[in-house]
Amino acid sequence: xxxxxxxxxxxxxxxxxxxxxxxxxxxxxxxxxxxxxxxxxxxxxxxxxxxxxxxxxxxxxxxxxxxxxxxxxxxxxxxxxxxxxxxxxxxxxxxxxxxxxxxxxxxxxxxxxxxxxxxxxxxxxxxxxxxxxxxxxxxxxxxxxxxxxxxxxxxxxxxxxxx
Length: 163
Ligand SMILES: [Zn+2]
Fold this sequence. Notes:
Number of helices: 5
Bound molecules: zinc ion
Largest sheet: 5 strands, antiparallel
Mean pLDDT: 82
Order of helices and strands: HHHEEEHEEH
Helix content: 25-40%
Number of strands: 5
């Protein structure tokens, strides 16, 4: 099997569900919303928030999203850049504690051509990995069964964060 590893492509194929009803930006509406549990927002920082991917590649698949609506990495301020990275590190720590993965993939898809489901609003993916988890990947489809219910994972991560 000779294919490029692309842990967040599942977001692309399910992107039709990542639009809000009025076609406005999903991340902006989540940022403004007070319904964090419903939206699977795990943590809110000053300039960025962390949200679980509703269509995860793996259990614990998370995204770190600047509140500010921009598609340009170079638009981010030093503060936003710094918090995006420090919040990613914080989430790695929490996921490690709760889910004990053996590794992580982190990164961004910049632009539709790169597979971004929401290409107008920057977001950074964080995907926990376990040895052998790719064995479960269907060879033709990019979706796979995620072993743990996302709601349960959300609660566990929130509990660990509040400790
Ligand atoms: Zn936005």
